[in-house]
Batch of 2 targets.
Target 1
Amino acid sequence: MYLVKIYNMKTDFDNIIKSDTNLLPGWIDELTAERLLDRRSTTLWKLRKQGKIISSKIGSKVYYKLESIMQLLEENAIGSNNF
C-alpha cells in the first residue's frame, strides 16, 4: 500500500516537474512547490527563512530552486534503500 502511494507521488512529481521547468529551467514557482511537497506556503516560508531551500522573490512571486527542494527531500529520506 505504501509503495503504491510512493510510486504515485513519484509519478505526480515527475509530471509536475516536466510541465513547470520548461519556462524557468531549474526553478519552480511557489504553487508548484506546494503541490510537490504537499505543504502550504507558510511551511515553504519557514524553510526559506531557515535556509533549508533556496528561493528568489520577484515582486510578490516566489520561485524555488528545484535542486534545493530535491536535496531537502534526500536529507529527510527515511529508508531510502526501499527506492
Target 2
Amino acid sequence: MDRFGILTSHRDLASQDTIVSFLITWLVLAICLLIAAKLTGEGEGFLTALLASLVASIVYGLTQYLLGGTLGVILAIILASAVIAAFYRTRWIKGLIIGILALLLAWLVNLLIGSF
C-alpha cells in the first residue's frame, strides 16, 4: 500500500484476501461451535464460541505442525476437545461431541455455500 492506503501490488491484495478469508472462516466456525454447544445444552454465548474456536484451531494447528501423522491428528483432536471443554466448563468427552457437531455443521455450510 502506498501512503494513502491504496493497494499498489498484487501482494497487498493477496494479503488482504487472506485476512478476510481467515476472518470469515473463523466467524463461520464460531457460529457452528455456538450452534453445536446449544444443541448439547450449553448456555454460553457467542464470545465463548469465538474464543474457543480460535484457541482450539491454534492448538490443533500447532499440534499437527509439531507432530504430524496419525499420532498428531489423534493428539490434536484430544487437545482441541480439551480446549472446547475448558471454555464450556464441561468434561472433555462433551467437548469432543461439541467439536464434532461443530465440524459437521461447518462441513454442511461448506457443502451448501461453497468453500471457505
